[in-house]
Amino acid sequence: MRAGIIGVTGYGGMELFRLLSAHTEITEVVLYSSSKAGIELSEEIQHLYHVHDQKLRSLKQLSSDGLDIVFSSAPSGVSSEFLPSLVDENLKIIDLAGDFRIKDADTYRAWYKKEPPPQSLVNQAVYGLTEWKREEVQKGKLIANPGCYPTAALIGILPLLKEKAIHPSSLVIDAKSGISGAGATPSKGTHFSQVNDSLGIYKINQHQHIPEIEQSIQFCADVDTKITFNTHLVPMTRGIMTTMYAELTDSVTPRSVKEIFESYYDSEYFVRVHREKANLFTKQVYGSNFCDVTFAVDERTNRITVISCIDNLLKGAAGQAVQNMNVMFGMEETKGLKSSPMFP
Ligand SMILES: NC(=O)C1=CN([C@@H]2O[C@H](COP(=O)(O)OP(=O)(O)OC[C@H]3O[C@@H](n4cnc5c(N)ncnc54)[C@H](OP(=O)(O)O)[C@@H]3O)[C@@H](O)[C@H]2O)C=CC1
Ligand SMILES: CC(=O)N[C@@H](CCC(=O)OP(=O)(O)O)C(=O)O
Fold it and tell me: Which of 63, 197, 256, 342 is the most exposed place for a label (fewest CB within 10 A)?
């Protein structure tokens, strides 16, 4: 199978390259660049010196390259410009950006401040939260790979929403991310001297992942609700932790919560539900496709705290994208993704 990567000079693209070049079903990985076509990848990315000496290709060559699948890891708002022209019977597409995730055009405009892609393609796109959308992903041709924060939050909270174990309107999601979540190009807000030795909150009540999480709560748990969701930048390279708080409905006990999680995730390789009140660290999923989950019932306040963590570049981006590719092509879902987390 031949796979292409758009945006391989970025963090998501680099991780895609690392995973796909070790994937036993992929015979060739073809790399595309919008700005550096014609140069060798290792000229741009020094850590890949002697690993890959193929020249980066122009996006214009892509449609005639006979690929089976292409991963687009370009900035949000960009793929809606070039992906529509690539949609073709024989090419499967996985987009890591936000462009095709939001079904309602006005909602997309309101949160992304951009024009959405053609509605027919948005309708066709499958939201690739694999554990919750496996059957649709299997039939999909265009996958909107989920955002990093929504992946962590949704995996942790959907079972409780679906089983009506919590009051939806009471849900508060407090999320924290490493700096690689902001991509490979430094900006004022991600400059080392400003983020090092500091904790910052950003996009307060305005993060573009709010409508994405609400939409999935509606589609996956059949619950129409508005959430409170905020994001923090942590001086670490990778990792996301979401700490979620909600009011319990009647008769929910620690045992019943554990049973709910087990009923959804016992057979899911990439979701590891830990014992109640286990201390989670982002390092325990570093470099892996795992989403780790724990919870704590507070009988004093009748509230629950649910915690989930992922590596933003793996389960939050490239790892989940490869998981989706495996599902789309009927391969073993864990193929190329079983390596243990890097620790410490
Ligand atoms: N970082 C993360 O943790 C996550 C990121 N995402 C999403 O994945 C996508 C990639 O993120 P990330 O790798 O961090 O971003 P980066 O900024 O690190 O990389 C983006 C890459 O896109 C390419 N690019 C830029 N402009 C264009 C264009 N006009 N057309 C085609 N390609 C272009 C660039 O490569 P070149 O110049 O070589 O073309 C660049 O290296 C984004 O949409 C992001 O929102 C999703 C989940 C998690
Ligand atoms: C730390 C950091 O800046 N993270 C990014 C999330 C990256 C991501 O998943 O973005 P898309 O949904 O647009 O693909 C942010 O908060 O915007």
Answer: 197
